[in-house]
């Protein structure tokens, strides 16, 4: 990795980016697989391209996968900006491992729990990611102003 | 902050990242608070975990908070990439303050105006953010090619 | 551009960021133009501000533009994080051109094909972006661990 991305914090952050986007790509394919299996598509022309009559139904499994995906957009994508800022504050190795590892674990679990309808597990995974993000924001703000 | 994140432009950008993601986290909690108060949840299993019968209603207040949040996804998240590029073009202090400060202010106001149903205030805040983003794109493109 | 953003890979990545966010801003305006032309708005107060009675209709053209936009959120925004990591692995010039250029082209085409209801063109453009992203993830992971 080219500097300044060669520090431990940036390398861990980069790894978490790769893992989390991979997870999002798998979720997108999971949604597509449900659509293909159930023949429930997003756009009218998709039915035509499959030689099927157009339907306008809301499938609970597709809706569930899409909710999990939207929750990723709301949490993982902001993390990519906050995580980079946090890595640039030169956190301790322990801080980097806890924040990046904790957030990544929380979000992988969140998707698994969402797709498997596990409650309150899903809420706990969401809360872990939420507070990891909040902690990185507060810690980074402290570094921006205090140092 | 480690170099190259120690310049004024990157520090202001980093601050705007922290403020805007904090704002998005508050909005997410605001949505959750409405859901808990009104007992209107996103997934069927959420009703079960609260000991309630499953409902499928579309609450106008939840829908409003979600629209504000989706508008954030469409505007704030692209800004995180464009703002980093703009900061890397070594803008003037005035440019950095105006773009990063202006965009951040616009998006905080957008959320407040959306939740309080203030029109045309919301449209004006949206337009301010939109044109700040457009300006950063054009200014960065100029720097990429001309210098 | 300030170091380390002065390498070819980072400059190409920065250019793709500017092109893709510009594309997203154009799509947002396209959606607004449909809304204004058809008088179909997102929020009840928008009707009042236009002096119109509130409606709750789901317009197929607005829904189409919004689906294209959401697909951008799910693919372009994760690319901004993965592309930065990939650029930091100091890829070859050919790799940078293929990945950044290929992804950008794929996503511009995806929007055009979506709005024009072109199938299976849209699916092919989506797949090209998907596999470009997957390739950048695998290539970056290799660089993170092997070097």
Characterise this structure.
Three copies of one chain form a homotrimer. The first copy, chain A, has 147 residues and is an all-alpha fold. Chain A has one domain: Membrane associated eicosanoid/glutathione metabolism-like domain (Four Helix Bundle (Hemerythrin (Met), subunit A), Up-down Bundle). In chain A, 78% of the residues lie in helices and 0% in strands. Chain A contains five helices and no strands. The longest helix of chain A is centred in the first third of the chain and has 31 residues. Chains A and B meet through helix 3 and helix 5 of A and helix 1, helix 2 and helix 3 of B.
Q: What features would you highlight for this structure?
A:
homotrimer; 147 residues; Four Helix Bundle (Hemerythrin (Met), subunit A); 5 helices
